[in-house]
Design goal:
Keywords: Signal. By secondary structure, the protein is mainly beta. 13% of the residues lie in helices and 50% in strands.
């Protein structure tokens, strides 16, 4: 019996598992504000908590209108280096509007890592202070 089919099964299982994590994004709820995430390659920015409560899907936030604190984790990869830093940051914004689409945009300059919260018109409405980074 050939080993190829036996080796193929674990590989396919891993691909299916990973593809399930990256499923389609749900439709935004028009009664809530939608916050997407945008990171600089090769980094990964993940949604963690809204007002201290853990969320289920790290790809976005949905919040009721009003004031909220958004906590994010940035997995920062150094170019040409296998080391990774895990960085924690948050943004507070008081005026989330129902049906509005926002984007939390990560930017790095040297050792400074921040993120700006942009409204649907591309205007910055809030930003994080520097992220707190530790080796991953």
């Amino acid at each position: 019996m050939s080993l190829k089919p036996l080796l193929l099964i674990p590989a396919l299982s891993a691909v299916l598992l990973l593809s399930a994590c990256a499923g389609p994004m749900p439709q935004p709820d028009p009664s809530e504000a939608w916050i997407g995430l945008q990171e600089e390659a090769p980094n990964d920015l993940m949604a963690e908590r809204v007002d201290g409560k853990r969320i289920d899907d790290g790809r976005y936030f949905e919040v009721k209108p009003g004031a909220h604190r958004l906590d994010v984790t940035l997995f920062e990869e150094e170019a040409g280096d296998d080391n990774q830093q895990d960085c924690q940051g948050h943004v507070d914004y008081k005026n989330f509007k129902a049906g509005e689409h926002y984007t939390l945009v990560e930017s790095s300059l040297g050792t400074t890592v921040r993120a700006e919260l942009m409204d649907g018109h591309g205007k910055e409405v809030a930003h994080t202070q520097d992220f707190n980074c530790m080796p991953g």
